Structure formats: structure tokens, C-alpha cells
Write the C-alpha cells for this entry.
Amino acid sequence: MAATTARRVRIAATASAVLLGGSLLGASAAEATVAAHPHQPYGIVTAKSGLNVRQYPSTDSSVKYVLPFKAERGLDCKVRAQVIDHNPYWYKLRDSNYWVSARYVHNVGHVKLCKDRYPSPMTETAKAQKAMG
């Protein structure tokens, strides 16, 4: 009886894998974890009441929408702007032109400064490099 049940479970698992278009044997725990989070760097909202997503890195800027507590979003880069509770950084969200205060985001992975991620031709000249040290 136990052998028949085990065989039925194996057949059901194989059928499920075929229907899903792959093999369950090839999936690893790491692949399952990666699928659960955005690519690094990403941020997790720490504000219990949610986090305002703004058009520009300032509380004077309009709110576009609100991210809920523990929401995970990809981070593109960061800038120093309006200081919020002793934190001067704002993150630009990946795949958008909107901003969130770093004060209410726990980042996972290194977030580059926007000036380093998107260098300007004005700062790439030899003269500008010499002036910056």
C-alpha cells in the first residue's frame, strides 16, 4: 500500500514538472531565493505606514504613489538631497524616474551615487578630473 502511494506521488510530481515546463530536479534553493527578490541592489521599505514615492528627491515634490511596509523595489542610484531625520540620501527607483528617502529603506547590495553611475561628459574631461583631484 505504501509503495503504491509513493508511486502515485512520484507520478504526480513528474506530471506537475512537465506541465510547468521543466524539471524539479534542476531547481536549486538559490534559484528559488533569487526569484523572490529583485536584482541587487534593492530596498525594503521600513516605514510601517508606507513610503511616499516622489517625483523628485524632496518632500516638496509631489507624491506619485505609496509603497507598503516591507515592499521590495530595485534601486538604481542615490543622491545627496534633502536631509530626512539625519539621512541626506535619496534613492532613485530602478525602471522609473521616481525617488524615495533612504531614511525609510533598508538597502540590500551596494547603491552607487548617481554621478558615478551616470557620469557627465562635463566631468569626464582631463581638465575636470584635474580640478576634482
